[in-house]
Amino acid sequence: MTEKPLATIERLRQENKITKLTGIFEDKILTKGKGYAFAKQFFDETYTTRCHAKVTVFENDQYAVSVFASSNLTKNRRVENGVIISDRETAIWAKNYLISITNQDDNK
Description:
This protein has 108 residues and is of the alpha+beta class. The chain has a single domain, classed as Endonuclease Chain A (Endonuclease, Chain A, 2-Layer Sandwich), CATH 3.30.870. The chain has 3 helices and 5 strands. It has helices at 3-14, 35-40, 88-100, and strands at residues 22-26, 45-49, 55-59, 64-69, 82-85. It has a 3-stranded antiparallel sheet with strand order 3-4-5, with helices on one face. Strands 1-2 form a two-stranded parallel sheet. The longest helix is centred in the C-terminal third of the chain and has 13 residues, at 88-100. The mean pLDDT is 79.
């Protein structure tokens, strides 16, 4: 995750387009530089796991959008693919499933 997507996320939070942000990161982030500490500044809840899935759930009072994609939140020139689903039931399922496989004691 790089600064540009985090800046966009922060702008959307300031505009109340995102009201809660939960981050689930591959556990390798704990041993690689300051990435996890940096990300924790932007997320309400953070978890780590061995899962390498790329799932992002954006929520506010009106919308719940889930993004399932092959890409990381970085700038790259590779061809990637993904699906965007905009219903709350899918967002709830995605969050609950991913949290169920995380290291619960990492939540801070």
